[in-house]
# Entry
Amino acid sequence: MKKYIAKRLLQLIPILLGITLLSFALMHSASGDAVDILEANRGGVLSEEAKAKAREELGLDKPFLEQYAVWMKQVLTGDMGKSYVSGKPVFSTFVHKLPATIALTIASVLVTILLSVPLGVLAAVKQNRFLDYLIRFLSFIGNSLPNFFVSLLLIYFFALKLGWFPVMGNAQGWKSIILPTLTLAIAMASKYTRQVRASVLEELNKEYVTGARARGVREGRILYFSVLKSSMLTIVTLLALSIGSLLGGTAIVESIFMWDGVGKMAVDAITMRDYPVIQAYVIWMAVIYVAVNLITDILYHYLDPRIRLGQEGAA
Amino acid sequence: MKRRLTAVLICTVLAAGILAGCGNSEDKKGEDEKQGTTAQDGEKVFNYGTTAYGVEMGNTGLNPHDNYSGWSAVRYGVGETLFKFTEHMELEPWLAESYEQVDEYTVKITLKDNIMFTSGRKLDGQAVKECLEDLVAVHDRAPGDLKIKEITADGLTVTITSEEKVPALLNYLSDPYGAIIDMEYGVTEDKNVAGTGPFIAEHVSDTEISLRKNPEYWGGEVKMDSVNVKEIIDGDTLTMALQSGEIDAAQGLPYASLPLFQENESYKVSSVNTSRVFFAQLNYDTPALQDDRVRKAIAMGIDKEGFTAGLLGGNGTPASGIFPSNFSFGNESVKAPEYNPEEGKKLLEEAGYTDTDGDGYADKGGEPLVIRWLTYPGRQELPLLAESAQATLKEMGIKVEVNNTANQQDFLDKGEWDIYASAFVTAPTGDPEYFFTTHCLKDSAKNRGKYYNEELEALETQLHGEFDPAKRGELAVKMQQILLDDGGFIFASHLKMSFAMKANVTGFEAHPSDYYEITANLDYE
# Structure
């Protein structure tokens, strides 16, 4: 197992090299650089000398590969550089924004699980009955609505009309996180409810369930100790992907709720051609996906005895 | 029975939700939240949401010597400049008491005697000298504008000598980058500074600034105890934050939201015309546009009244020239072609463009008159202007192909455009020369259409050496008229900037310079 983990972590090196080079190349192929964009955004004019000086200071006058090499050298010495736009160290900016993103990720994943697992099981157990239809209908609606629309609806009803939660920001503690969490969880829970339902139905039709029933095992015990555990493999895979994507931030939700996370930071950086911030974000995303996939694989070992035993047998 | 019970339960929950949603917000929210001050422990707190603060604006932090952060220092009452602009964009002393133009290269400024920095240091000539020396050493635009050779200080006076004649030196010093800060105090890690303004920043981040009143403010009593400036990017969030009472005033509301506050007695709106103009440059490389009559016909085909009243919902003012009406050399001082499609059509016919094949578009020698209209989506007004021009020019038989792209620079570089519409702040320091030098001269950086007029070049040389503001204004009028007569530029509208606020907010007015927002007079009735 340790060997396996070490191997996966080693694979991270070529992945990081590849995607940082690719993102660097893609950003350089876009028109304009940070100096141009800042000038355009302000609606003013910088003299060519001032622009040349700014480019020289940022190293933007150097050839593409040289810029990449300089950046890579800095990163290897633990320096992620400074933002071209704000002038602040990239690492500290990133670390400052990360807790908000992590908090929102944890909250929305928890709410997603709390909503989708019971509803999915209920829909499967009550297959083709009123409750099943209702849950499927609601999950269809939840899946169809885009995030920005759900967030505006939630703000309208719960902040503006009822006054239960703040419209934006994170100044009011737990109350502040409810609406952004619900925005993300509604879409995810709608998707997962259908997955849980399908997965539970598949398990319910298997022979071990028929056998258990024939032996007089209670329905609840079959459901919670056998069926649900087996269904979890599918859910874990999906959740892993969602967690990866959530940890990368959710720019639209962050912008609407003014939730100061890494998603909005990344979109701003792309718009402003702020290469050091974009590169830091790319590294973060690569590490997240490798780490989350690794954790998922490890979870498989514990959830599915076939994988665990198969590997031990082969060894 | 159990099924029915479940169904009833679900229906009850849904109905409750719907009723709650449809209920009048007045039922749920106290009158004080809608109308009253945002008071905590008896203190007056002003929460202000704005789209104009943030990383993409390049104005985060309060250090005036960094990028556009001086705008934040001045807007939010932390920094003050030596001179400031009146509502007519004329200069008046601020930190300065008076000035004397010693010769064409030297100006001597006398400072007011009773001013302290929030750090506790007294404002004197030496403090101003230190600040301006740092400004020209580190800022990107200031050295090119000010062209300072030497600064000397003596008590309450500071004497600035320029390398060359800079008639608009005092205007440039009134740009927010000229906010005077205490360089001995310096700039903190979070980009905070010690200024002379009515407020002291307690917390500065890329998205928010918290301010407390300066109890020792030289300009009199500061009426608001504290102010929180918050960046809010999304227009709908900004709207609902003001409606819910989370903020007391908003800048940058979408045009569609403004009527919610204009037609509601719980709120009021302060609007002003700014020098941000939405205008079109015509490409002299395009053969059809080399004909004076075609350019004039196009100018006659732009319905500025219809555009501002209809598509902008009254949130813009039709432009004749470069500058809005509140400037002495503004809209009323020049004459632009009026919207007149019939007359425009005649001009096109004179130029040889008629609809020979009956397709509704004019053509000449078998070639239809097609205009590639390039613009970008970054300003909500520009795509609307393109749509408006497309519709009205079609009536005259001109086919407009709109290219609305964020990659406009690529198309400009390749020359794949005939008309380029953009937005520009034409007189950020109240002086008229800036727009001409940046857009209209042979060597101007933004003269994208390769416009050239010898008389205009000569007048610019005259303007560059003229110190008398009145004569500068007269020259600016002449130069604008040349631009309009040549038809190389079409000025469509000036931006009307609006602040929406709770009805009991006072001392919070939109200013044509866009520099002054939070002042000592900000208060609640």
User: Anything to note?
Assistant: Residues 2-22 of chain B form the longest helix (21 residues).
